[in-house]
Specification:
Number of helices: 4
Protein name: Glycine dehydrogenase
Distance between the termini: 55 Å
Organism: Algibacter mikhailovii
Largest sheet: none
Number of domains: 1
Shape: elongated
């Protein structure tokens, strides 16, 4: 018979909170997270801040680099990194 784990440490709760933010958590993880949030004010604050951050990013009008610019930046970074590698 397997044990059912209903308590989780804060670091795991924060990880599940992050997964939930990106819709990658399972139903069971969400249930256990909500139980954890009932008694842990620090994780409730973390979860609240995560939600606010997600909303701000969705509502923002951020312009991102196009793929060509990203690739050029990546090549420059790799060139600079290779130049600074210890021998």
């Amino acid at each position: 018979m397997s044990k059912v784990k209903i308590f989780m440490p804060c670091n795991e709760a924060n990880h599940v909170c992050d997964k939930t933010q990106y819709k990658e958590s399972t139903l069971w993880e969400k249930i256990i997270l909500n139980l954890h949030l009932i008694y842990c004010s620090a994780c409730r604050k973390y979860s609240s801040n995560n939600g606010k951050l997600t909303k701000l990013l969705k509502d923002s009008k951020i312009d991102c680099l196009d793929d060509k610019s990203k690739e050029a930046m990546k090549k420059e970074f790799e060139k600079a990194l290779a130049k600074n590698q210890p021998e």
